[in-house]
């Protein structure tokens, strides 16, 4: 077995007396589509924030591509290939689709966001960044929309742009935090298909509370409950686990 691309060791986050994440040991293999699920308050978002670097753990470590990244801020993790989903609010609505993607590509290479005007002036001379941007737009199905302002995009294309922005940072692994929250069933299906289509060659960790949604797409599922790992395995194994049924449905058959 190869070394895991992402590993956590005894990862713990306490808020006062509350242990939100409790000694979590995760190992995600290269190329895997892993989902991290759990009922409300299980510690999913806190775990996501510990993995991206938005929060520091009380104790425990995060190792990515063999390197201990526990003390690194978010942008340095992105530079090392640990990408994360951005919300629509991180799309710059005053810029075109191409400029948004190029900005993300440039920021990932330079390790931080520069003032937009400075970036746009300099980036026009960076042929490799421009080529990379075109490849990402093509891959995301947005090449024909590159010159459109981001704020006039239709809903589906906005989701494409968010994913293109993640792809622009050229991640080995992408962390997705409830990417379909608030969507209709149809929008959810389209977004999951898009993730599958555009990011299928990356390692993925999807944080999600909808257990049915992850069944179709995951290679393996880790179930969190009260901050700790309750179960882990293939979708079939997890869905049949009595502890998981108890945690989700309180022992009542769904
Ligand atoms: N900044 C904070 N300060 C204090 N408590 C917090 C903080 N963030 C989260 N918590 C608590 O930690 C626990 C885990 O919360 P978290 O948001 O990680 O769970 P979750 O699984 O993402 O839940 P949900 O599905 O409802 O979003 C909860 O009891 C929550 O109230």
Automatic annotation (TrEMBL):
N-terminal signal peptide: none
One example of a Gene Ontology biological process annotation: amino acid transport
GO molecular function, one term: ATP binding
Record-level GO cellular component terms: plasma membrane
Key words, A-Z: Amino-acid transport, ATP-binding, Nucleotide-binding, Transport
Keyword flag NAD: no
InterPro entries linked to this entry: AAA+_ATPase (IPR003593), ABC_AA/LPS_Transport (IPR051120), ABC_transporter-like_ATP-bd (IPR003439), ABC_transporter-like_CS (IPR017871), BCA_ABC_TP_C (IPR032823), P-loop_NTPase (IPR027417)
Positions of the ABC transporter domain: 6-251
PANTHER family xref list: ABC TRANSPORTER ATP-BINDING PROTEIN, CONSERVED COMPONENT OF ABC TRANSPORTER FOR NATURAL AMINO ACIDS-RELATED
Protein name as it appears in the record: Probable branched-chain amino acid transport ATP-binding protein LivG
Species this chain originates from: Haloferax mucosum ATCC BAA-1512
